[in-house]
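Re: the 166-residue chain
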Amino acid sequence: MDNGLLDPLRHNTWATTQLLAFCGRLTSEQLNATSQGTYGTILSTLQHIVGAESRYRFRLSGLEARWPEPEGSTDLAELSAMVHELGSLWEDLASKPFDPDRTIPGKDREGRTFEVKAGLLVAQTLNHGNEHRAQVFTILTTIGVQPPDLDAWSYGEATGRFVISS
């Protein structure tokens, strides 16, 4: 894979990890809050982010996750460990030659078969994480909680990839 994708993949992992850590300080009531137009509760959205990313990675690499279905986990530390492992696997995938035009066959949760290009799965991984993290932000602001800054600039500052020099 082109190393130009390392920053987007690393940002995705960092942002989800940061959001899980932030949400780990929420009450059970807050974790179970939802808002119109979002996927579901904060907890179910976090579970969905990790579960979908695991499935995308499996389709790209063929590597099965070594953990149970994330959608069943209510332990944010466990979800964070899954994200950490996914991040390592993305790093490994990004360090090898990558054909974005490779066709990957699959079957969705409704049993329908499909074919998708490998590059599109990477794009979907990044878009999916951003979309659902934004939905969690919507819920947080709806319940009066200021969400953390998780944009690429914040990632850059946190990792030294973006430096402001007055």
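The mean pLDDT is 93.
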